[in-house]
Hints:
Elements: H1 2-8, H2 16-20, E1 22-24, E2 27-29, E3 34-35, E4 38-39, H3 56-83, H4 98-104, H5 111-135, H6 141-147, H7 179-183, H8 230-258, H9 264-288, E5 294-297, E6 304-307, H10 349-359, H11 368-382
Antiparallel strand pairs: 1-2, 3-4, 5-6
Amino acid sequence: MSEQISSISKFADRRSFLKKGFSTGAATVGAGLLMGNAPLLARDSDADDSGGRLTRGDAAILRFLGAVEVLESDLWEQYWELGGTQDNEFAKATGGNPLYTDALSILDEDMAQYIHDNTDDEFSHAAFLRAYLASKAASTAELDLLSGKRFRTLPGSMAEGSAGKGRLTNLTQLTVDTSFYTRYRSAENPDLDPNFTFSQAVKGLDVGQHPAIPRSDADTAGSSIGNATDHLKAIAFTAGFHFAFIEQGGTSVYPALAQRVTHRQVLQILLSIGPTETMHFQTWQDKAGNATPLTDTDPITKATVTFVDLTQNQPPLLQSNLIMPEPCFFLNRKFPRCSIVRPTHTKGAEMDVVTGFTADGLFIGQEPAFFELLQDLASDADAAHREI
């Protein structure tokens, strides 16, 4: 995974991915990413930078956020297939995985509905951002590429309830940073002290590789409704903390990038979608704190995780019901402490998202061209600035 993180920083030429094409096996696909005789992206060399009737910066920010929503849609669909309320609202129902769904219900009896609704939200965000860009004659080429079949090559789960199709993201080898839990319960602000270290809420989840979904029916073996094995509980509890990890990223990145947009309507979009991410985070960090005590060593990855009871006799940094953001210093330490979303620094915020997702293990198994595409989108958005 460290190799994947370092590979993100190797691609220095902005727009290089779509201009140069990418390698597929021994052949290089170029000239507009040809597919047969038809160009996959039939545009001139600079069209992928176009803002259409938006500034290029606004278009780049919306494209980056659209890409993040596509990635989130992919991972949430996997959670929904196995553990969410089943209907055909945004994808074809699979029937779910009753044992995994039951293990998730330990965190809250309404987990299946919450997973369904979070998934629905992410699909709606991705679809809206693409449609809005298209309405302004801005390029959606990268979003279309990411939404298509090109990079959906990761195997995903083979357990009951999985659709068994190719995925963009990997939920079977996660390394989950749970410092978000203590960050929001602390009076520290990483915007003012980026070197401050927030402690982890779950021992072992931030090292090794942990599954957050059943990889196969072997992961649910021995469980029954109302009587999950510790191994299946550990998978479900890992998912619970991962839900919050993903959504705290969206909670921060929307206000961070809103500081750089030019058009009022684009600002309205970011200030309207962003708070829904915060609603998600608030829900998930509350539910994650209901994990019951256990220690489990995964039989495949050999990673060990220990969950403790966060509902009883915990210090404020770990107390499960302290879900309102603790007031912290904001803008300058001379001001009184204020309850805020944090971090919201804007410099490098896009690459923070890409690097964080990569360190999380979401992209284990993806090819270099995938990382170059994400780096291109992030570097374009990072170059955006508010225009007068």
